[in-house]
Amino acid sequence: MTAPKRDIVPLIGGLDQVTTPILVPPGRLLSSNNFEPDIYGGYRRMEGIERFDGRPSPSDSTYVYITGTITGTISVGDTITGNPSGATGKVVLVDITGTPDIIVVTKVTGGFAASDAMEVSAVSQGTLIGAIVGGAPTVALHADYKLLVATEYRADITVITGSGPVRGVWAYKDIIYAFRNNAGGTACNMWKATATGWSQITFGEEVTFTNAVGQISEGDTVTGLASGASGVVKRALLTTGTWTVAGVGSLVFSSITAGPFSSGEALQVGAVTKATSAAASAAITLPAGGRYVFDNINFKANADGLCMFFANGVGLIHEYDATDLVPIRTGLAVDTPKFIQGHQGQLVIGIDSEVQNSSIGDPYAWTVVTGASRIGLGSAVTNIIPQSSDSTTGVLVITTTDKTYIMYGTPGNYSLVVNSDDIGAYTYTAQNIGEAYFANTRGITKLQATQEFGDFNMGVLSNLIQPYMDSKRGLAVASFVVKSKNQYRVLFSDGTGVTAHVTLAEDGHNVSSVTFMPFDYGAHTMNNSFSFVDSSGVERIFAGGNDGYVYSLDKGTSFDGDAINSVILMVFNHMKSPYIRKRFRRAVLQFKATITADVDIGYDLSYGHSDTTYGSSQRILADSSRNLLASEYWGSFIWGTFTWGGSYLQEFQLDTPGVGENLSIVVHNNSNKNESFTIHTLIVNYSLGRMQR
What we know:
Layout: E1 5-10, E2 29-33, E3 35-37, E4 43-45, E5 49-52, E6 64-70, E7 79-83, E8 88-95, E9 101-109, E10 117-120, E11 123-133, H1 139-154, E12 163-172, E13 175-181, E14 187-194, E15 197-200, E16 205-212, E17 221-224, E18 230-240, E19 247-253, E20 266-269, E21 272-277, E22 282-283, E23 286-287, E24 293-298, E25 306-311, E26 317-320, E27 325-328, E28 339-343, E29 346-351, E30 354-357, E31 373-376, E32 381-388, E33 394-400, E34 404-410, E35 413-420, E36 431-433, E37 435-440, E38 443-449, E39 456-460, H2 466-471, E40 476-482, E41 487-492, E42 496-504, E43 511-520, E44 526-533, E45 539-545, E46 550-553, E47 564-570, E48 580-592, E49 597-605, E50 613-614, E51 638-644, E52 651-660, E53 663-671, E54 678-691
């Protein structure tokens, strides 16, 4: 053996399922789950997910650490009151094994004071000595207490009342809205998140009209000549024609007095007939089913003009301004748009194999006279997203099941060009993260602007994980971006997903590399998702679950209470000396963590060949329930268990006695209380030996 050597390996490159083992760069992974590429390098254990309804976040909630003397009985679940301070708190832990006694409380009101009597139901059960907010004596206990508190708050958060999956989630003016079928599955209800949970949105009423002969405006009081019904107009929508010649449209009211309006009656403003009702007025409802797609658009050119628009594929498109829900009719015989996007002062929709845009500056009008148009594509639309083109204008990327189109031009002068005649995209997978990304039968594809004016090219990025993408073919259901991490993610119907981390070149525009790593939310399957940056500058991610919950993603330390079962299996590294036997001595993993990290670390040599010799380290066979590695290596690894709890030097050191050609390291974490941590560098100490025979 030669003198000891040291190999320093930056952990970058992500999952690699296709490169020949001897050629794969060190730092890549043979297998991974629930880790993600860190924006600063290394592999980061993913953050959690937690249910959401507007009430306090389980992971953000805190506790008070109380020391005292318990003379009576205090139990978990009790509410204790300090006397005379008047502070209250719900007990999540009682420890009387030492001195003083310890009580941990949450949902605290007021401030506990030394010498307070600790009362339960107005009966003193002991005396308080001290109380510290978040004051656990060790970081490990702090993590334990945070878990107890999160469990307490999680129990308060409810599903959306109704049946079936959550069909859409969106943010409008920093409020989260969600849609779910009613209990009978006969209609879809709209809800908003509040400090007390989900609150159902009530809708107004509308009447459709024909034969307009005079203008009806918002704020007018309309009266039915025959019925005597009346209401103040919240929206006056003219779909086709004009207000004076053959106008067709609808009027929306918050409420109707002495209603309903009857079919065929004159609709009057100030005793002057303006139009004729086409049908009796009716309550505005949303049909059951569908999948909701949204865009927030301002057509009114004022600060208060931003409205939420949505389509669902089973009914009309709608506008919502935080007060009124407005059905918008396009005039199509089957008026069920599936996609919606604001573009250059127009509303663009996708329905079946067509793209249609509203009149210029008017989302309510769909007549050719004022700029509306229709374009047939030949196959079903699967995504519509905006994309940068040149310094003066943008374009729309429109994908179908088998083609990709670019819509160039300006209102009234659009041109739809085929970008790819044989590459389409899975529905709901297109996102912008500098460029357009989407998933299809080939994997993950990027559409990138070229140096040529307004032109684009595309390429498949996910070649290194093609076996994984092939196994998920046809399962993609949703996607979103995490801008703060330069990530594009795709969700699959089985609860799994894949993260693509985009690294930009030095020019800040072109992509230098894309790294892929899979994840698995377990039993928490989702069918729609989105991300946004709120008014305070915080990026937030939400998804609609098939179980009726809305989930906040990248939040907390667990998968809604379940442990995050995560692993990275590094490639076998021959230290640039293939077929040379080496005596391995020690592996050091450098990492970044915040509070605690409980990990199992293992190693194997020479692809697990039988001629490998190991030292005296204890071999611990992995629990079969983990079952995470898509390889045959797991059972042969030699294991050590490590807990990091706040020391300055953040390293795991694993003795690796043995002789072999190459070395692989596996890191496993299975916890519902560990904050995310990043493993960024592997250092291997070894000595070179003879040629492999």
